[in-house]
Amino acid sequence: MKTHTPIRLGMVGGGKGAMIGEVHRIAARLDNRFALVAGALSTTPERNAESAAACGIASERTYDDFAEMARAEAARPDGIEAVSICTPNHLHFPVAKAFLEAGIHVICDKPMTSTLEDARALERIVAEADALFVLTHNYSGYPQLRLAREMVARGDLGALRLVQVEYAQDWLSEDSGSKQAAWRVDPEKAGAGGSIGDIGTHAWQLARFVSGMVPDRLAADLTSFVPGRRVDDNAQVMLRYASGAKGALWCSQVAPGSENGLKLRVYGEKAGLEWAHETPETLWVTRLGEPRQMLRRGAQTMAGSRVPAGHPEGFLEGFANIYAEAAEAIRAHQAGAPLQTLLPGIRDGVEGLEFVDACIRSARADSAWVEIGRD
Amino acid sequence: MKTHTPIRLGMVGGGKGAMIGEVHRIAARLDNRFALVAGALSTTPERNAESAAACGIASERTYDDFAEMARAEAARPDGIEAVSICTPNHLHFPVAKAFLEAGIHVICDKPMTSTLEDARALERIVAEADALFVLTHNYSGYPQLRLAREMVARGDLGALRLVQVEYAQDWLSEDSGSKQAAWRVDPEKAGAGGSIGDIGTHAWQLARFVSGMVPDRLAADLTSFVPGRRVDDNAQVMLRYASGAKGALWCSQVAPGSENGLKLRVYGEKAGLEWAHETPETLWVTRLGEPRQMLRRGAQTMAGSRVPAGHPEGFLEGFANIYAEAAEAIRAHQAGAPLQTLLPGIRDGVEGLEFVDACIRSARADSAWVEIGRD
Amino acid sequence: MKTHTPIRLGMVGGGKGAMIGEVHRIAARLDNRFALVAGALSTTPERNAESAAACGIASERTYDDFAEMARAEAARPDGIEAVSICTPNHLHFPVAKAFLEAGIHVICDKPMTSTLEDARALERIVAEADALFVLTHNYSGYPQLRLAREMVARGDLGALRLVQVEYAQDWLSEDSGSKQAAWRVDPEKAGAGGSIGDIGTHAWQLARFVSGMVPDRLAADLTSFVPGRRVDDNAQVMLRYASGAKGALWCSQVAPGSENGLKLRVYGEKAGLEWAHETPETLWVTRLGEPRQMLRRGAQTMAGSRVPAGHPEGFLEGFANIYAEAAEAIRAHQAGAPLQTLLPGIRDGVEGLEFVDACIRSARADSAWVEIGRD
Amino acid sequence: MKTHTPIRLGMVGGGKGAMIGEVHRIAARLDNRFALVAGALSTTPERNAESAAACGIASERTYDDFAEMARAEAARPDGIEAVSICTPNHLHFPVAKAFLEAGIHVICDKPMTSTLEDARALERIVAEADALFVLTHNYSGYPQLRLAREMVARGDLGALRLVQVEYAQDWLSEDSGSKQAAWRVDPEKAGAGGSIGDIGTHAWQLARFVSGMVPDRLAADLTSFVPGRRVDDNAQVMLRYASGAKGALWCSQVAPGSENGLKLRVYGEKAGLEWAHETPETLWVTRLGEPRQMLRRGAQTMAGSRVPAGHPEGFLEGFANIYAEAAEAIRAHQAGAPLQTLLPGIRDGVEGLEFVDACIRSARADSAWVEIGRD
Questions:
Q1: D238 contacts A238? CB cut-off 8 A
Q2: Above 70 in pLDDT, residue C375?
Q3: CA nearest D42: which of D10, D14, D21, D73?
């Protein structure tokens, strides 16, 4: 138990009816490292007031406009130290820009921006800002995936050969018309990528996080299965790494029976790893010729854990690990002693958009191999 | 999103080095329904001050003595509305008594007391108090177990025949000497029951919660496997219900490979249910002659959920459901409109101690069948 | 590949409509170590002729009477060398007696006899016979259970503390009236034990096979849930071993959702083992403080395997392992060089009936502890 | 129980040290529908004699040359009615040709031939032969995959959108030098495809068997990871169907921790199916918005079963289902009443080689989409 003064936090987006806003708030609250004190949560003034009140945000710190919020909070002596961005994708860029330029740390949902152009512009802004930028690729907060990364990094698998990653859902199998669904299938709000932006970027980031490698080429086949849908809802992607390693990425939002099926398998010359989101506390490891081992959160790893092995932890705890680590990094930054962390950030964000961009370029070229990040 | 004013909460016990104290704090915080403002967390003044500071409790509301805390907080206009009790078992009774008599709601860890006598005395106190008493049998907060209860209650299984429940751990397989372990194997602090009190009562409560029935007789065989241990670390118990149903309860803290293995199976004339703690979001249901069904949190049930199916939730969320429901009940009580809830309370506590007592009586009589609650 | 002359095999019982007869025939055939050449398969002459023809048995070696078959086959120069007994339980004794006394090796289904008296009488007959007696407790033919036995025997688990075994089915949840069901619930044919004889003896034998220990006392609660049933269809049994180890055995034929759910868990001071029939090729092993290991047939064990890891083997292969080993033993016996094997035999049979007998004695004494084999 | 006269069977290849030969023999024997009476099992006369003796084949029907065997057996009044071909791939064609032209039914291991040219030549021979040709794509013998096929065919899934199939192994992760491995990585014996021929064709056939569709285009990336290996040991393949459905096929022999990991997922507008080889008796089905169902061999399907649900069946039983069905088909053919069956045959074989051929053409064109079967 260490004593921490909670970081003053604001939030943009994530008001009533937004699942991900509540996720950010719980994650921020779980370890008592943040206090939510300001917000521009919803788009209409009435909804906004209502959302803010429900979050316990005082009315004088409830803003109808994010730019005004950035200005006003930067000016207050007790202004927010960090802001969480939970808007639809196309607003991530202007909001992040406003707060970073006001010297306020940013914790931003993914995909980072709706265009690669924005992503690169944001990269330049981050480079010059006196504030941290954290991207909530929350899956990298799972302890067993941190362990997986460590095993790869220290050579337990030998030279890597294969990275198989997938993320399958079924909730967009039909045109549901829900609010959650609506903006995700609208290219003006989500960006040109549908499933590749919404969940493909998670799979992409996770594969990189664990393998330590970014593919240099990909070949993609994108599909929109639901009639009238303007963005992809399924993608088959083949991957090539500079080292000679190969891989595949499959993401889908039209696979009935798939809840939130993120799965990663990494194979090297000497061993293989397997992790699936439905059992996030288990990392399977097999060294060639040896029995399969089941490495468990809380038994083989304790970092990032709140309760011992056998007391299931999951999505919110993994998400909260990102927030807790962001709190550490922010406090260290304020103390002038920047931390080395595993936090996903601006680089992950740019790479995510490079992935989306490359998928679209390849798909337009009838799945030809394209170089990633060399558009 | 509804607007809630957090309930002012105090805590007794649960200071540095106590796993369960942190669990209560996270559960209280998760839904923003409680604010921890006072405490008597540790036994020495220095540790206590340190623990309180780490929890953000002001020094003037940090108490070295729980009785003083009950008095002082009851006298404050902004005094705590509820208290969480996370001490070793033998202190649950005096602490609960002090706060209940001060009109402060109590949220108490289990087993409720260290003796059946205390449990019954507490039952009388609760009956007369103008305050609620909640017992954190947290497993009953899991949505899929609530669903199981509902299915049994509405007759999906037909008349029940069998209740098989078990709770196996391995962390006391050796004499570890850890602080967590120390008081649990000390009959002065834990009570006469070892594993039967610590985890057997959880299994017992859960079987009752789901089946809706309490056995009227049991036959038990208690064992202390670790040399020098003064309480049981393993129990085999056979159960008989008044209806003619039968059952078995096994609890063990010396079963290598068992993390926190709570498992419940209930069988009726028409169908069977199965639930295991390692996959808490899944309830298995089989109707005779039909395929097995996998009922999932977030897909088939949403109550008590924070994120959709496929985003794993677990122990802390289930625990937080008890806290969230306690908050509802407290606010309703304050409004003079008591709620009907599924919250575990004084009855579960008394029954738990009756179970422990019956096990000990049966064990002393060479596993003879004894009546439960008729000592 | 070794050259083997198939052993000439006869069969008593197991005609049309009998599941277990076909299982024995497939098991005998699988490794080409037996040729079925004589039989008394069904009870009426017409059915018998039909059954024999379907098995390719010549009409002159199709017998309506097992005693006549024993005499006639013993007299033929090309007479059967071994006989498989697949009748209802109450006939096992007279049939086995007839063939053993004729010097013909016996492979008998379980439970060995319908009474303990018969079991002991058979034990004396076997002791004097110049023929082998094999009891098809087939589960002990699974490679991973052989591995489990070996690990216990060589001390990998340290001193054993706990043996938890269960065998749950649901096919007798209702009064189905099927032929398979009919004799099993008729005490004149099945013996005094219902589920305890039919599947409890399997669980009992397996626990002994792996642990290497037989309990010396048990306390049992037997129930007949289906109205009108004259034998038990559910049993809760607590076990005590001379060493101080404890255990529990649960068998049930009224547990909806349970197919053929045999499960064994053995815990010692240093490690625990877990095996379940639904995944028979996997043995789970956990040494205290180490990751759980998944030991797989074909990967970590090859003995008793026909195909490599990942090519699922199951019930018939395990059963065939008993037959293959019986063939080895028979040939060795004929060569005057008796083998040491792990084959279940007369001792397992007597112990099985001692288990049934003890359960019934304990149940009559209101679940008092009774000594096993000391009636 | 029906009476069957066993079919007289010969075998070419599959002598000592060949895993697959023993598999064919067990499968042929399991249901007593075949009797092995002739063979040309091994390549040297000594080994051949030894192999034949071990199989109980008389020396006068042990042949050193398959052509001689075809001639001699065709001439005998009691000559073989069918032959099993278990040689390395490149010999499948000449052997099949010899026996088909001799009017002897052929049961051939896969892939059907080592070149597409041979496959097409064989197709013409089969068309003109008065004998059946069965290809042992054994996975289509699993009852739950037959059920899957049926569900797709009757529209339970609605229009299909996605077919994800994979087959991962790890046994060629290193250059082991085993006999099993040696010919599989020799393009002269295996054909131009390595993993795509050996296991990719299985995945391909299975996807077609269940979905009822053959892709019309594919894009493939083939890799040889093990230094010096002359054929692919890993393939990523993207699939396009004429209907607009998409798919992916991954096969690998260098994925540590993968035993024999065949897995199929099929998604339609209304429902999804999932099957994995490690639990072959379970078919998972999810209709959009409904609970996941676990359909079990022996409970929901009985065809192709030998024992009830819960008695695990596996690889050999599935393989034996192909043999049993071949026996039915052969007897019907002999009776002049040809059967409609689901037996894999010449078409599956040609399609398999078309798949291999298309993969190689695509790989040579830097993974361009190529038409399948239009070389």
A1: yes
A2: no
A3: D14
